[in-house]
Design brief:
The structure is a homotetramer.
Chain A (H helix, E strand, L loop, with lengths): L2 E4 L7 E2 L7 E3 L4 E6 L14 H4 L10 E6 L7 E11 L3 E6 L22 E10 L2 E6 L6 E2 L3 E7 L6 E2 L3 E2 L2 E2 L11 E5 L7 E7 L16 E10 L8 E3 L3 E8 L2 H19 L4 H11 L1 E6 L5 E8 L7
Parallel strand pairs in A: 1-4, 3-5
Antiparallel strand pairs in A: 2-12, 4-17, 5-16, 6-15, 6-17, 7-8, 8-9, 9-10, 11-14, 11-16, 13-14, 15-18, 18-19, 19-21, 20-21
Chain lengths: ~300, ~300, ~300, ~300
């Protein structure tokens, strides 16, 4: 296995099957990627209000990729192990953007009201006795460095989808469990899978309520593997102590339904439960949290701890 | 302070301002309540299928109450400390009910499909070296005894609402954090608050996916307090390490929005943040999980850990 | 048959089974009711802004009733023929109310934005060569007098529901086809049915977009009939040339689903189609419009013209 | 002006900016297009059940296009006048497809229930004294020939979107008012606009409830015009007697909100009303119906009759 470093020549703003791969890698290779933040580093200080700083940005959320993974074919599953995420600057950016976020009307949930007042928050990344943390000079609360990948995707089948969107292909899910130590499974629709990633967050609450987490530039280390002839419908996460499924849809209950059905089916396929035992067991011990309530569709995460997957 | 025991003479199937109180208690009294399960104990073995066992039940989810709390007036807040929940039988009931649950069409999300096959699951409550646990003879996975109150409510203002419904008055929220050690705040709409409770669960996953948790009969010990002249819009939970708000609505995103707005406002009122600092901080560190995705409205829980409520 | 006139002694703000009937009538009686407007006539000129004029109103949408219809028993259907609606003043009121309406955030779809600017619109009712019409001095567009009943309901089963809510019991549906010449069918849950009505509108678009139609006080003439042993789940409308069903729910698609399922079942029960023929035929020729997109639940109307109900 | 005939060499299953134009036309040209049905003519008799007949179809809803309209540039509006739709075969197809439709669970609203029983309906197109009509041998109800274009779109900006989806670019809206005599306005995102069309329906009810209308192959005659420097956000329809806007979103209320906001803004821009007068006037006289309740997003149509657009 070799180590491959990807410094993107240009970014993509769609998860697209129509782009030439940035690089080709083999399963098992250590792949080091550099990602820009969701604003392509246009906002760096609190005076940079989004309406001005982003005025020249036709598209947001730049993606590094596509990466062609040798041997991946439609009908396979791509396993993406997230080895590490390292910061490449000493601050994170968050902001309130006009008509974007969870507690404001948006182009999707559209009203005639004025927007909230925009504002940019700079969070400095510092070292402390308990590890790295973020702090903002107004809020003055320490937020630990717990980075994850906001956006990771394969190219869809025939479609090219905005990098602002989550979906069956993964995408802009903003799910904090897509983090170092965990492995993400994505369905493969195209030869080589055509993987994209970006939008790393230094920390994020469930829901990403204002729509903009602690946005960072990052160096991400991944290892890909291909599970041949295994077809999945929606992204899955394998953590050391639990398994998770992600559903992305509107309204939010549709996302919750997708995630739970997928988890029932997974428990049936691989863990020796009937579908109905899975439905019953999830009722009693399943987890379900909101990943994002702000993107083009909402992402919900259903989970079960591994300790409940073994019968006595 | 005295201890008051409430063995209900009859149950209520609505949260109603039109019923005579079962009992009058004083703030600070230790109140011991007995609650039946959601099926009024009509299902006790796995042969008891809901379509037959519940055929004679015009209403479900019997409530103990109302309890009149001396001194509570409209515009106050009722604080309900949950001291303990003890089982009063050695098993819990769960079941699949026709056209009820999170992964089936229902009278609300109504389709022309046949129902799922109904089934009753009996979970025995046993003692183990690590404490009490439930086990079902088919699923054979140990589920720890972690009881909570599925339904607690005050009487609404002028309305009488089905005990199957959650709302601003509390009600059938099915939120696992309504549990011993925590305190629930409810708005008071009527003199005496008129508190109802029932529907205890021995354990439940987030979402209560099939719609029926580990339903138990229970002895519940509560202490009420009245916070005078404090008006809240939706239920709140105070835990030792975090504060939580509950929003109940359809679609689910509306519940998420309510819970988050309420938490922002709470942080503004009591914890020294501006509304906008709260919005920003919740984005980075807030929690949000699904309490129920099966009731007449869905209940979502927004939270923030207390460690994030103190500025450095 | 006799004629009964109902001048309400006091109004109800809930559809409730707990109130004494205003009057008892027989099927076939001509019943003349007087209804106030949704604001109980607190707004009468454009200077009356809602935030002030309604400040003293604890509840809105006053209902005339309940009316006890002799012979109506639970499990029957109440047929309400709307004979006529006559204006009892020479103007209608509409207004923009803070955080109420279809194009603003609300307590249900709750955001942190400021409200739209409130405003009151007075529409004068005038006689013209083509009949009565409304006109507002700013908008200056003639709107024809086409009155209907915004709110008509029976008392629910055990519940008392706010007069602002639509539901299976009818209620605040704001459906323009509840108008003179048509007959409304409502399920009966209580002895005597306990009918309520109010909230007449001089005209209204589909959706009632700002939430406040041309609100009028009115004299409403109705004739009740009881269809014995016929049980329906949701309100139905019989017009000379079509039949309609109303579903009220959130999200709006749930209302659309309910209305369409109910119409399929109606076509199966009474018009000689199989359920699947009805599903197919509605796909090709059914109507579906939005009654209200502003109330506690949204009301959608599914319909089919009678000419399509006869096979060749 | 010349006449251009387009017999597609191959179909597209995405609205894509990445395809070479089938043909280039000038504004004002008469463009005659041939369209296949949504199933690419794989279903032609009632024995052709979708699960078999469509088993080989990786993609559905074939589109004719893209058509490059000379002079259209990003920021312009494309006006598509629908001159006529003529049938090119003597029958239409409808069917019940597993997990597709308005009264069944789907991959979006996903439950564990079995699908409805699939079925294919053939509707013969016949001539009668009152014009062409469809009739099915089981249902035996005459449905008049009132054809429209189910799908018409421009290529989106950077994205390639499935031909099963509606959106700001138009697409699979299934709105019956996209019919001969009316003109559709679409925003232009790419040079030449890159227009696609297909999925003609011989008749359809509002909502397209089972998901499959009277699907026909057709010869469609269009005339394009380009409105320079006019930017619109969502599709608009101009009919002889009314103007309409289409919003497509989930949940359905978001589609209703979009359509109404767009109509308010249109009335403000072009008809001399303030935004608030428009909001008020639409409340009293606007129309709002459901175009589709079955596609990837739901399409709702807001409208106002032209007679209400002139002040007295």
């Amino acid at each position: 296995m070799s180590t491959v470093e990807v410094k993107p020549k240009k970014y993509s703003y769609v998860f697209s099957p129509y782009l030439e791969p940035e690089v080709r890698v083999k399963p098992g290779d250590t792949v080091i990627l550099y990602t820009d933040d969701a604003f392509e580093s246009r906002i760096t200080k609190k005076e940079d209000l989004p309406s001005k700083a982003l005025a020249t940005a036709k598209f947001l959320n730049p993606q590094t990729g596509p990466i062609y993974i040798e041997g991946a074919e439609p009908g396979d599953t791509l396993a993406v192990k997230i080895v590490s995420i390292e910061p490449t600057r000493d601050f994170a950016v968050s902001c309130f953007i006009n008509y974007f976020g969870g507690l404001t009307s948006t182009p999707f949930t559209r009203f005639l009201q004025d927007p909230l007042k925009e504002k940019t928050w700079i969070w400095m990344l510092k070292d402390g006795p308990d590890g790295k943390y973020f702090i903002n000079d107004e809020i003055r609360v320490k937020v630990p460095w717990e980075p994850f990948v906001g956006t990771c995707a394969v190219a869809p089948d025939l479609e090219a989808i905005s990098s602002l969107s989550p979906g069956p292909f993964g995408g802009n899910q903003d799910v904090p469990d897509v983090r170092p130590g965990n492995t993400i499974h994505l369905p493969v629709f195209n030869p080589g899978a055509l993987f994209y990633t970006g939008d790393c967050h230094g920390h994020q609450g469930q829901g990403e309520v204002c729509g903009v987490a602690l946005e960072i530039t990052a160096k991400v280390t991944l290892v890909f593997n291909v599970i041949k002839k295994k077809s999945i419908a929606w992204p899955r996460i394998l953590a050391p102590n639990k398994i998770m499924t992600i559903g992305s849809a509107r309204p939010m209950e549709d996302a919750a339904r997708i995630a739970n059905v997928e988890l029932c089916l997974w428990m049936e396929e691989e863990f020796g439960f009937t579908r109905w035992e899975a439905y019953e067991l999830l009722t009693q011990v399943g987890g379900m949290y909101v990943g994002n309530m702000v993107d083009t569709t909402f992402s919900l995460v259903a989970s079960i701890e591994k300790k409940y997957l073994t019968r006595s």
